[in-house]
């Protein structure tokens, strides 16, 4: 009998154990005694040993299925959770203010106060006065008639 080389990954080992279990149940009668590592073992005991060996493999497979389903469930709930977060953020900002340091307690960053120097404020005030004067002068100026159009 030749020894086959098997892929030693857990999934491969589990597949082989399931295949051996199915083969033992189909091929051998319950009274058939097999030599397992030097121990005489009848068919039902061989199946029990395989089942014992498969417990952790099957548990991992079941947990992976549960994980895959949980990921699908999370993905389905994602849009609703994002909408809830947006509504919560809007409600908290409206309640405490966009610049409130209390926002940090909610994991949000307060909006920064604009940082203008006294010189920048003075310059802006001068520009505002100049702009107002220009607007008032434009309103007081007489409208000029449009130039005559040339027709040929």
Question: Topology, please?
Answer:
Layout: H1 10-27, E1 33-36, E2 39-42, H2 43-96, H3 118-140
Antiparallel strand pairs: 1-2
Would you kindly provide a written description of the structure presented here, covering whatever features stand out?
By secondary structure, this protein is mainly alpha-helical. The protein has a domain at 10-112. 62% of the residues lie in helices and 5% in strands. It is built from 3 helices and 2 strands. Strands 1-2 form a two-stranded antiparallel ribbon. The longest helix has 54 residues, at 43-96. The chain is rod-shaped.
Concise account of the structure shown:
With 152 residues, this protein is mostly helical.
User: How many H/I helices?
Assistant: 3
Q: What structural category do the secondary elements indicate?
A: mainly alpha
- Radius of gyration (Å): 41 Å
Backbone shape: rod-shaped
Average pLDDT, all residues: 89
Strand order of the largest sheet: 1-2
**Order of H and E elements:** HEEHH
The residue ranges in which pLDDT falls below 50 over 5 or more consecutive positions are none
The helix fraction, in percent, is 55-70%
Proportion in β-strands: 5-15%
Largest sheet report: 2 strands, antiparallel
Strand element count: 2
Terminal CA distance reads 112 Å
Properties at a glance:
about 150 residues, mainly alpha, two-stranded antiparallel ribbon, 3 helices, 2 strands, rod-shaped
């Amino acid at each position: 009998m030749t020894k086959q080389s098997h892929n030693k990954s857990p999934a491969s080992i589990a597949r082989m154990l399931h295949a051996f279990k199915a083969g033992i149940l189909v091929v051998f009668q319950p009274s058939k005694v097999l030599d397992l590592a030097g121990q005489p073992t009848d068919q039902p005991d061989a199946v029990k040993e395989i089942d014992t060996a498969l417990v952790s493999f099957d548990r991992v497979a079941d947990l992976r299925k549960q994980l895959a389903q949980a990921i699908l469930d999370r993905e389905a709930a994602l849009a609703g959770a994002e909408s809830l977060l947006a509504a919560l953020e809007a409600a908290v900002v409206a309640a405490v203010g966009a610049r409130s340091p209390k926002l940090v307690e909610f994991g949000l960053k307060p909006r920064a106060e604009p940082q203008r120097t006294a010189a920048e404020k003075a310059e802006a005030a001068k520009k505002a006065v100049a702009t107002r004067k220009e607007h008032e002068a434009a309103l007081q100026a007489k409208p000029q008639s449009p130039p005559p159009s040339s027709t040929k």
